[in-house]
Design brief:
The protein is of the alpha+beta class. Helix content is 28%, strand content 38%. It has two helices and four strands. The chain has a four-stranded mixed sheet. α1 links the parallel β1 and β2. The longest helix is centred in the N-terminal third of the chain and has 15 residues.
Length: 86
Amino acid sequence: MAGYVRRLMVDRAAAAPGTGRALLTAAERRVTEAGRTWTRLDCLAGNGQLNASYVDAGYRVVGRKEGKPQPGGPPKSFTLLEKRVG
């Protein structure tokens, strides 16, 4: 079973370096405490820096969701990632 990380965002102009990784680690800990063995998330496919950050944190790319409709905006594509945590 998996736990899902949603809407994790950090304002890089306001947050100290490492804040995003600390929040992600805290989310992974909560997933583990809930008895789940996988953490899953998605991010904008076109954001190479963000995709690389998740891979550096131990996530692996497991798919891609193309052209997902967005309320009031153009469709966006997302990279699907997961990490074994338990």
